[in-house]
Write a structure and sequence with these properties.
The structure is a single chain. The chain is 78% helix and 0% strand. The protein contains twelve helices and no strands. Helix 5 runs antiparallel to helix 9 and helix 7 packs across helix 9. It starts with a helix and ends with a helix. The relative contact order is 0.10.
């Protein structure tokens, strides 16, 4: 990067300026809810991008990626609020990204034998930094239970496209998805995944009505 830009980034991404960015992001997140305006979501997008740059990539994997997508589309939709095609396009992109994330994850798991036989699920839960005590894994997710849980996860993720078939399917899928992420937050400590994907569900429901 050019030296002047590096100079600015070096000062933005060190303490206490980094803490200031966190506060700015929190205030702008409240602004998104409290008052309309593209600048709130755009500031959240830019600070999220700077955090990713600061840590050399997405800090929390998929949740950071879907957050950036949602914030970018929200900024675009609010910036061109009177252009209905732009707004619909932004919502459609968020919905398709959300559905595709589940579908691709399901296809990857379906191809992996360790997911189909429950071994991968047990290993993920056992290796979680924040989660239930180890004895939970050994007692609850043993043998047939682990297989059933893995197959249920795969089936849920592969079913994501049906959410776009009708509003009824969309609301049913969203209900199951919320429960899915609550369980993930408890078992794997993936708390940010809950908020990141829940933010896409209004777009999914909207597109299901639009296509209907």
């Amino acid at each position: 990067l050019p030296s002047p830009l590096l100079w600015i980034l070096d000062r933005l991404m060190t303490y206490p300026a980094l803490l200031g960015m966190c506060v700015a992001q929190l205030l702008c997140a409240a602004g998104i809810v409290a008052a309309p305006g593209w600048w709130w979501s755009l500031t959240c997008f830019m600070t999220s991008l700077l955090f990713a740059l600061r840590w050399g990539g997405s800090v929390n994997g998929g949740s950071d990626s879907i957050t950036l997508i949602t914030l970018a589309c929200l900024s675009l939709g609010r910036g061109f609020a009177h252009e209905h095609q732009v707004v619909i396009g932004a919502l459609l992109y968020v919905a398709l990204q959300s559905i595709a994330s589940y579908l691709i994850a399901g296809l990857v798991k379906l191809r992996a034998r360790r997911w189909r036989d429950g071994r991968a699920l047990r290993r993920f839960i056992d290796g979680a930094v924040v989660g239930p005590p180890p004895e939970f894994v050994g007692r609850v997710l043993a043998g047939p239970t682990a297989i059933a849980a893995s197959i249920s996860v795969i089936a849920f993720e592969l079913s994501a496209p049906i959410a776009l078939m009708s509003p009824a399917f969309a609301f049913a899928f969203v209900g199951v998805a919320i429960l899915f992420h609550v369980v993930n937050a408890y078992l794997l400590g993936l708390h940010r995944f809950f908020w990141a994907w829940c933010a896409t569900y209004p777009a999914v429901c909207f597109v299901s009505v639009l296509l209907r």
